[in-house]
Design brief:
This protein has eleven helices and 15 strands. With about 375 residues, the chain is α+β, with helices and mostly antiparallel strands. The strands form two sheets. The chain has an eleven-stranded mixed β-sheet with strand order 2-5-6-8-15-9-14-13-12-11-10, sandwiched between helices. The protein has a four-stranded antiparallel β-sheet with strand order 1-3-4-7, sandwiched between helices.
Length: about 375
């Protein structure tokens, strides 16, 4: 076996990559990662330097791991700014650091993909050893693996890394035949609340349109991009992704895109973009020009639930944060990240912090369960 570092996802044959990755988790598709790089959304200029690791045997791809060298912590959704500050206070550099993640995507899924004929534990060790060597070469402080699936977490626990826990809120399809079946599982007060929120949409003259990626025109993508950009500008920041990125994924993987427009008097007033997996809908981007009562809930949550029920998807992962999701049937789930810290003193200190944080996270998750709107 040979482990090799590549500076662009385009250095790997797309069919070989997708043969291993599959398309059930859309963010690991060659087309998605390639669009990030080719559009300039991910590049050394934006602080994301691609340096992916692949394992070959007789020139056949048998494993890979997306990897980036980073000089900041933005766009990750697992926050380590305090760790960077502690390094700085002690006269050390936290950046650069290595990161295995899907850029700007806080959705659990595969992070290290391995041919089923090989022992995953051994491949994980090979990757970690390679990263440790790279860290010495590049004077990097650490390696971080964000939002891995539970199978990866169990293997990562056997390695010399720190495991961190977090909480997100996700909706689960309990074989609902219709949205009303979902509503009937809720308490009367929450059922009434959701009905009222959905009714407000029509009362304001707003209608919703669902489009698959291949159906969306370039003008409509430009409209969506303006909404997406507005979300960041309202917070005084710049958007991570470019219009070219969205146009490219629409061209190469449009069958896994769901774009929802909210329209008033034939004019789009908001939009939300989701990605379609084999059994999961991933809600990702949203934006609007002006506020309409309950429009965010309808566009980002209820439309997605409708789609999951109609298409028999088992789960709706609507992204990070959002305690307001609980009252609308989104349940707390544990997310994970793994962290290899080169400096052993800092590794021990971070482990102690994570153990304290874990207790608080688990208490928070247990508390969130008590606010779920389902009937007893």
């Amino acid at each position: 076996m040979e482990i090799r570092q590549i500076s662009s996802i385009s250095d790997v044959d797309a069919s070989a990559w997708n043969k291993l990755a599959g398309i059930s988790y859309p963010f690991l598709r060659h087309e998605f990662l390639c669009a990030l790089e080719q559009s300039g959304s991910v590049s050394p200029k934006t602080g994301w330097t691609p340096c992916h690791l692949i394992v070959l045997e007789d020139e056949e791809l048998i494993a890979f791991m997306p990897l980036y060298l980073k000089d900041h912590s933005w766009g990750e959704y697992v926050f380590d700014h305090q760790w960077a500050s502690a390094y700085h206070q002690n006269g050390l550099n936290y950046y650069p650091k290595y990161l295995t993640a899907i850029p700007f995507t806080p959705c659990q899924g595969p992070r290290i993909v391995i041919n089923a004929a090989y022992n995953p534990s051994e491949i994980y060790k090979i990757f970690l050893q390679a990263i440790q060597q790279l860290a010495n070469t590049k004077n990097a402080s650490s390696w971080h693996c964000l939002f891995p699936d539970i199978g990866a977490v169990e293997i990562l626990k056997s390695l010399p890394v720190n495991i961190r826990e977090g909480v997100q809120f996700q909706w689960f399809n309990k074989d609902y035949g219709h949205f009303d079946n979902f509503l009937s599982s809720l308490t009367a007060s929450k059922r009434k609340m959701i009905k009222r929120e959905r009714k407000r949409i029509s009362e304001q003259g707003v209608t919703l349109i669902q489009l698959k990626g291949a159906e969306v025109t370039e003008t409509q993508w430009e409209t969506f991009f303006n909404f997406y950009t507005m979300t960041y500008l309202k917070k005084g920041s710049e958007p991570y992704l470019t219009l070219e990125f969205f146009l490219e994924i629409a061209r190469t993987m449009g069958e896994q895109l769901l774009l929802i427009f909210a329209v008033n008097d034939q004019t789009p007033v908001a939009a939300a973009l989701s990605f379609i997996g084999s059994d999961t809908l991933y809600g990702r981007y949203w934006g609007c020009y002006e506020e309409y009562h309950s429009l965010h809930f309808e566009t980002c949550y209820y439309q997605g639930i409708d789609y999951c029920i109609e298409n028999q998807l088992k789960r709706f992962d609507s992204g990070a944060q959002g305690e307001h999701k609980i009252a609308r049937g989104f349940e707390p789930v544990t997310t994970y990240s793994a962290h290899w810290i080169k400096d052993t003193g800092f590794a021990d200190a971070i482990e102690r912090f994570l153990q304290r944080e874990k207790v608080a996270i688990q208490q928070y998750k247990a508390s969130a369960f008590t606010y779920l709107p389902f009937k007893s």
